[in-house]
Specification:
By secondary structure, this protein is mainly beta. It has 3 domains: 2-132, Immunoglobulin-like (Sandwich), CATH 2.60.40.740; 139-237, Reeler domain (Immunoglobulin-like), CATH 2.60.40.4060; 241-302, Dockerin domain (Type 1 dockerin domain, Orthogonal Bundle), CATH 1.10.1330. Helices cover 13% and strands 37% of the residues. The protein has 3 helices and 24 strands. The chain has helices at residues 2-17, 252-264, 282-292, and strands spanning 32-34, 45-51, 55-61, 67-71, 78-81, 84-90, 94-100, 108-110, 112-116, 122-124, 126-127, 130-132, 139-141, 152-158, 162-168, 174-178, 184-186, 189-195, 199-205, 213-215, 217-221, 227-229, 231-232, 235-237. The strands form 6 sheets. Strands 4-7-2-1-11 form a 5-stranded mixed beta sheet, with no helix packed on it.
């Protein structure tokens, strides 16, 4: 009810301002939606195209987990209320808007939309309705925890077996070797040809920069030359000295965890040894506490 009232007010303003233009005729006054023909990757931003008679309002409703990003229309012609986006059209017969896809493989979204003309008549938006996140047929496995500076990191790829895998690593992260021959390396792109190998491992070396992260992306190309996004894990980070819970910051939570560690000796071998004496003990807890209070610089082993 509130949305309808807002639309009525907005349409009245359009008429009073005298900016109504002759509508562009497309059939019976309805609008059309255009979506990507192929599935999209997890968290990918894709374009939605709308063609309408020109003046009026388009209301689009997205699904939970799918997010509006921006539009080709001026910001003052767009309003967002949860999953519902309202676009006021002042003679704009065509426009686009961007949506961030779900982070769940195989998730689908059916977009519901209405075009309201200047006579307050609603028309269901036709054209494409559904967009789907690609289901990965190949996956990547990375370490569960952060890695120490200069560490060699093993990346495990599982695939259907026949085809090619191209992985893109980040600047500062270097290729070391693989359990199968490397077919090609161009810049940060590593290509492996699979001759029935359903699982293989390649190794990269992390930079000597605390907190540096790499989001690895990859494509599996099957024997029919069809490309599939590699799913699974994608991000690996270098540990930060003192960040014993690997959340990217050093704070009192880390002090508490390190104190608990002294009692039961679990984990934190590198990030917890903040004075690099070869063991994690109460001395490290005291130094870390002082560091949180901005009075001590930490020095994990190089």
């Amino acid at each position: 009810m509130k949305m309808r009232k807002n639309l009525e007010i907005a349409m009245a303003v359009v008429l009073l301002l005298g900016v109504v233009t002759l509508p562009v005729s497309i059939g019976d006054g309805s609008a059309m939606r255009n979506l990507p023909a192929e599935c999209v990757g997890t968290d990918d931003v894709f374009t939605v195209g709308i063609t309408s008679p020109g003046t009026g309002a388009v209301v689009e409703t997205l699904c939970d987990g799918w997010f509006y990003v921006f539009s080709s229309l001026p910001a003052d012609q767009v309003s967002v209320d949860g999953n519902t986006i309202t676009f006021m059209l002042l003679g704009n017969p065509e426009f686009t808007y961007e949506v961030q896809a779900s982070d769940t493989e195989g998730a689908s979204c059916t977009i519901a939309g209405v075009f309201t003309d200047i006579d307050q008549v609603d028309h269901a938006i036709g054209g494409d309705l559904e967009v789907t996140v690609c289901s990965a047929i190949a996956s990547r496995d990375l370490p569960d925890e952060c890695v120490v500076p200069d560490a060699e990191v093993q990346v495990t790829i599982t695939s259907p077996g026949m085809g090619a895998v191209t992985e893109t690593i980040c600047d500062g992260w270097t290729y070391v070797g693989s359990s199968i021959p490397l077919f090609d390396q161009t810049g940060n792109d590593l290509t492996f040809v699979l001759a029935g190998d359903t699982t293989f491992i390649y190794t990269i070396k992390a930079p000597n920069i605390e907190g540096a992260c790499c989001d690895i992306t990859g494509i599996f190309k099957d024997m029919g030359e069809v490309e599939h996004i590699i799913g699974g894990e994608s991000k690996v980070c270098v540990c930060i000295c003192g960040d014993v819970n690997s959340d990217g910051i050093v704070d009192m939570d880390d002090v508490i965890l390190l104190l608990e560690h002294v009692g039961n000796q679990r984990g934190y071998a590198w990030a917890g040894d903040v004075n690099c004496d070869g063991e994690v003990n109460v001395g490290d807890v005291i130094l870390l506490l002082n560091h949180v209070g901005d009075s001590y610089e930490l020095g994990c082993c190089e």
